[in-house]
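Hello support,

Our group uses your service weekly, and this is the first time we've seen a run hang past the timeout. The protein is Glutamate--cysteine ligase. I'm not sure whether the cause is the sequence or the server load. Input pasted verbatim:
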Amino acid sequence: MNDLLSRRLALFDKPEHLDLLRHCRHGLEKESLRVAPSGQLALTPHPQTLGSALTHPQITTDYSEALLEFITAAEEDPEQTLAELDTIHRYAYSQLGDEILWCQSMPSKLPDEADIPIAEYGSSHTGQIKHVYRKGLAVRYGKAMQCIAGIHYNFSLPDALWPLLQKAAGDTRPAQDYQSASYIALVRNFRRYSWLLMYLFGASPAVCKGFLKGRLHDLDTLDENTLYLPWATSLRMSDFGYQNNAQASIQPCYDGLESYLDSLREAVSTPYPPYVAIGTRQHGEWVQLNTNVLQIENEYYSTIRPKRVACPGERPIQALGSRGVQYVEVRCLDIDPFLPLGIDITTSRFLDTFLLYCALEDSPVMPGEECRECTDNFGHTVKEGRRPGLTLHQNGTPRELVEWGIALIECMAPCAAILDAAHGGTLHRDALEAQRAKLHNPELTPSARVLRSLSKDHLSFFEFAMKQSRMHAEAFRARPLDNATHQAFEQSARDSLERQAQIETEQTGPFADYVARYMAAIDPDYNTCC
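Update from on-call engineer: The timeout came from a worker crash unrelated to the input. Re-ran successfully.
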């Protein structure tokens, strides 16, 4: 344990300081494809009984009409967060008829690209900008890639913790600047160590053969319908999942918040010739919001994002720039097909420990060499993380993955201990030990369990995912909501539809002018005539 981590941990020897750790907040965003009973992608519209995808606080869509996204509030107790996610699932299943939710991050059998429905958000300018943005994603990346699903874990340390750390450090910056710098330091350490999350929680080592139709790849053939890599942990997070040549040019600087924002401002303001050739409109219809490397900042496929809740009409860059970092969004988690919710409390407890360690551990700025090294470590782990003896690199020095992972577990143990001291019990230590067991025995990892199920039961990826999806669907449908909770969801759905109608009534002016104003907030040179 380094001196800085020891000093920071010592601050929690005081009961009033230790109590702060009970007030971390946890939120979840979980994506799931709707599929027909046959397992084919559902081509039905987003059910109106689930409310408006534009305005509903808990149920929306991501890329496609069929890609549901469930959103919880940020709660201090992660068990309450998971309970809310469970409740949303149970209500959704009461409205889906015979459709079910796909239990895997990698998609089910997809129709031709032209037939994958892009999400609709109504006729308001706000709704149209979301729809056109998704049309741009189709142009840039293809529709199939946008059907990949995952889980986002939103985490914040209590606001009152930062003044404590700042005073102990003798830091005289404005409080907002210190908090933002500290969250960016957390992000740097996350970049250093997030390969470990992919080893422990990656759950997508295989994919339907049709997903890579027409694309070059070096995946192995498991059966006539399944491609895989024998040591892979997460094909979703590999270059077979989220990839784009334009984004390869983006190298966000995590030296501080402003340098990070400058990186994104440049990406949303710099034309990319292939997109320029397409233009923003074809035959009078919008096909993308602009012709830059990124249409908007959220298009950047990062494994973690510093975040701030934005005000209506405010862009994420503006919110961060004006009020600083409020929380982080971990974006690299696969859906675990063995868990009904795709995530469980043990995973959550470990993530809390991991993120607290990233926040308290020393986090020097990252030179370009280390950034590339971190990217390489992550890439090797998602494609061959369970390979015996796999070697990563730490500051240029080779380090065996399992040995390094066990060492990190040891380093995190004091963080688990203070979390347990704050909450009572041993839940964080137990979560840490569950992950240590996976490092000693890779067969316990979700990715290994998926491949073992395919092999043992002679199932294709599709057949395995259908089996698990049906089992989870039956479990949710067997636990209908009580009448009061069900009625509350119905009212929330009606309220969201009324809010969407109100927004559509209130809009004024041409859509092109609205887009121009939205883009000019970041890119003053935006050209409405592209």
